[in-house]
Amino acid sequence: MPSPPPDREQDSEAEYSDNDDAGDDASSVSSFSESELPGNRSIAPMPEHLTLPTELQRLILSFEREYQKAWGTYRLVSKTWKEHVECLAKTEWVRETFIDYPGETIWDPEIGKVHLSGEFAFDSLDGDTAVFKIKDCAPQFKDALIEICEQIDDSPAIEIGEIVHDVQIPEMSVDWPTLTLTCPWRPLIGRIIAEELRVDVIRAASRHETMNTMKKLKRKGDVGMDAMFGMLKSIAGGTASAYDTVRAQRLGYTDKEGDERLRDARKAISMRQLFS
């Protein structure tokens, strides 16, 4: 990654501290604060002649596809990087966002089976408010779709890039007659990424435990193909269970049906990545 920008030399703790983001969604809804996120540490400023131009720094940051890393680490480097990452979140990440209410299949006498999808896609940005709409619902099925979606008690699945969670966003509102959903971009992005950061913490601990087990097996000279396969399977299982664990902690109970729905959504994203 590029070196910190020149303004880092002028950023004193009084000017730019963790308290500046005290009300920020990524920390306020999380069990950890931004000061505990990786990368939030004092960094010696680079000589000015070795610092990349601001435009190039932003371009490089835009290539980071792990949004939780950009939001939870790079955004905390300096004021300039904070502005860069938040600009990317507001102008680009939000455009890759989908908000999905579980649909349902109904029977139409003329067509037969019809699956009604409650997926809201990005439409526009009105100031700091992101506007999403269901754009492909045939008029004759609109009332049925609204009835199905209004009966759903669970929070919709929110997909931002490759991240999917069903965290409740209190600021989100839906105007069902027009199939329009609105939400300020910051809590939308921040709360979903905060959930992914919690998953990363558990996932990292699981990987660490697995690698320690592997080291013990190596010392015993017991590292055959079966052991290697078992370790890989353990890592994959740890990743899947991390999502379920974090969600259960947030909800206060285990919701297997909801966990499965989110797993299917993540698999669908992975498949799209393979063929994109």
From TrEMBL:
Residues 1-11 have a biased composition (Basic and acidic residues). Residues 12-24 have a biased composition (Acidic residues). Residues 25-36 have a biased composition (Low complexity). Residues 1-48 are annotated as: Disordered. This is F-box domain-containing protein. It comes from Roridomyces roridus.
